């Protein structure tokens, strides 16, 4: 797995600067946290990395993954894993089918079954394979969403406040689970959060993004 680099990223909308000259390097297996108040542009930065940012934003600078400029790849070819506040599981598919959905095409049925079953066991979801995702608890949904994302073999992981809807008791457990898997898979990981406890628990550098502008790598 290669590093993700954000190099001199500036994002503007109209006459507002959302992010100015942001440079961050995320080695494989490291979690960098982007922190900042609401409206400072954190989700906008993630959208730009994914290639889903509206064209009315003006962007300069580069995002590289394993040395390759992501701008050269169509959004659907970037192979990025993303987790949102809501665990976005397909409601019409079972838990098993949700996980299998992430798998790369071209693998045998036997291998599919093996990978999904191993992921279900890893996330302590075995026994829930046939369930409708709506019947899962918040923690089970979060673990299922992570497993589906990892089964797709992403080259980097983007986390957009994925713990903010979880209650305090569950939150610490789930974030350790997500961070441990990100490190184990050697994924460069970018976490967006308001919560200093999330950032501290990620254990990597914290980048502060301020409203209307400046960003700097702190540690
Ligand atoms: N289409 C748009 N036109 C104009 N301004 C926009 C547009 N989309 C977003 N913005 C502005 O860009 C700013 C950054 O939004 P963004 O959602 O990236 O912030 P954020 O730091 O992720 O906030 P939050 O923590 O609340 O999710 C906001 O002030 C928002 O109002």
Automatic annotation (TrEMBL):
InterPro entries listed in its UniProt record: AAA+_ATPase, ABC_SmlMolc_Importer, ABC_transporter-like_ATP-bd, P-loop_NTPase
Residues in the signal sequence: none
Keywords: ATP-binding, Nucleotide-binding, Transport
Nucleotide-binding found in the keyword field: yes
Pfam families: ABC_tran (PF00005)
GO molecular function: ATP binding; ATP hydrolysis activity
Domain spans labelled ABC transporter: 4-219
Name of this protein: ATP-binding cassette domain-containing protein
Organism: Hwanghaeella grinnelliae
């Amino acid at each position: 797995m290669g590093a993700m680099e954000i190099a001199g990223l500036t994002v503007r909308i109209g006459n507002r600067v959302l992010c100015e000259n942001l440079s961050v390097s995320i080695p494989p297996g490291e979690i960098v946290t982007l922190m900042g108040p609401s409206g400072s542009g954190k989700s906008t930065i993630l959208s730009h990395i994914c290639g889903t940012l509206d064209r009315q934003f003006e962007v300069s600078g580069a995002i590289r993954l394993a040395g390759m400029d992501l701008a050269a790849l169509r959004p659907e070819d970037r192979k990025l894993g993303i987790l949102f506040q809501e665990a976005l599981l397909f409601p019409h598919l079972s838990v098993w089918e949700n996980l299998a959905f992430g798998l790369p095409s071209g693998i045998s049925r036997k291998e599919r079954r093996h990978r999904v079953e191993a992921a279900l066991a890893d996330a302590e979801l075995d026994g829930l394979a046939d369930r409708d995702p709506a019947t899962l608890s918040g923690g089970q949904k979060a673990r299922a969403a992570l497993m589906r994302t990892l089964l797709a073999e992403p080259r980097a992981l983007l986390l957009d406040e994925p713990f903010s809807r979880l209650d305090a008791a569950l939150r610490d457990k789930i974030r350790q689970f997500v961070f441990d898997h990100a490190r184990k898979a050697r994924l460069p990981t970018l976490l967006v959060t308001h919560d200093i406890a999330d950032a501290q628990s990620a254990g990597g550098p914290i980048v502060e993004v301020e409203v209307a502008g400046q960003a700097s790598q702190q540690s």
